[in-house]
């Protein structure tokens, strides 16, 4: 029997859950998304997305109207007779670097106590290797009705800011199962996406997620490490990266040096894999090094500026870009969050501009920061400028803007936005990451 339109439920409406739910509806499945936050559910039922993600709201509205997409806090009605339930709740980092599995456990228990028919449980959240086994045992222990449950791992590889696009154009779908039936069901659920499917066992699927993210984090830290060396020996990291990129074994992506990676994934997943290793008595030295380098890299420009200036006290500092990358309003682990408190503590007046991150920043940083609605406003009369995110609005500024608007045109660019020569010609004292004037 072939089920093309399945009844799917999704637990958790964060980036992973919401995007998965909406995209499953878009390809024809009947989807119910569950969250404990009533306000958020009401908002989504009225067609408003709680996160800023290109194309998402449009698809939400379309599928709500088509009756294929539902949002509810009533998990019982959503789980009871679902063909499959996707778990997309958070696994936040704990102080020791391990992943907090409380939310997964809560959902697993709710599922166990609610199911009235056989069901496939799919873990989409990023979870330490072995968690799917635990989830399966946990659900079986708490099952109330006599139903059959299978648990599968299906990690998510979407990046924030391009989540919808990434879902429909994923490089691969990873399916980790321990039985043929679960594998078949997931293949059917994903069939309408027409994407390559890689089928492995559950533990390998869990590992693929960490291995992929940590490899990318390692790649960035490697380039940052090299950038620091380039500065010392007079090489240019961008030329080096370009030269490397022609080798298909290296690839052209994720070779950009900067002020370090942030976000909700790389910082958390590197620490979680190191933690997993130490639990097994092993030191994952490559990843530990990447984490250390990233920590230092976030303050690279601050350290440079500290050496150049007598004091920050009383200086007007323009901060351009607050989010951990462009295209998102997320500030988790963003370099700006490390730097701004240091500047404030040293008596600087911080004027910050970000096209979408201001609201989130207000929740995380003291009131002392002044937020501006344009980069020009932040730059006017400034003594120093730090650039932390390569937003288009910031890239579009011409070098002469810094020269004209700033009191003293001293710019520290953590994303290598401008050509050195152009800044030089405009009369801007300009520092970036790992580059030399040619
Ligand atoms: C990342 C991965 O790219 C996704 O494949 C993965 O699914 C996701 O984590 C996840 O686990 O959910 P994301 O954190 O949204 O996605 O953002 P990225 O675009 O990967 O950027 C992460 C950080 O690396 C940013 O701070 C960015 O500025 C930095 N970066 C990226 C660099 O410093 N240099 C580069 O060359 C590329």
From TrEMBL:
Species of the source: Acetanaerobacterium elongatum
KW NAD (keyword) present: yes
E.C. code: 1.1.1.22
UniProt KW Oxidoreductase keyword: yes
Catalyzed reactions per annotation: UDP-alpha-D-glucose + 2 NAD(+) + H2O = UDP-alpha-D-glucuronate + 2 NADH + 3 H(+)
Pathway linked to the protein: Nucleotide-sugar biosynthesis; UDP-alpha-D-glucuronate biosynthesis; UDP-alpha-D-glucuronate from UDP-alpha-D-glucose: step 1/1
GO biological process, one term: UDP-glucuronate biosynthetic process
GO function terms (MF aspect): NAD binding; UDP-glucose 6-dehydrogenase activity
Name the record gives this protein: UDP-glucose 6-dehydrogenase
UniProt keyword annotations, A-Z: NAD, Oxidoreductase
Binding-site residues, NAD(+): 35, 40, 91, 126, 268, 332
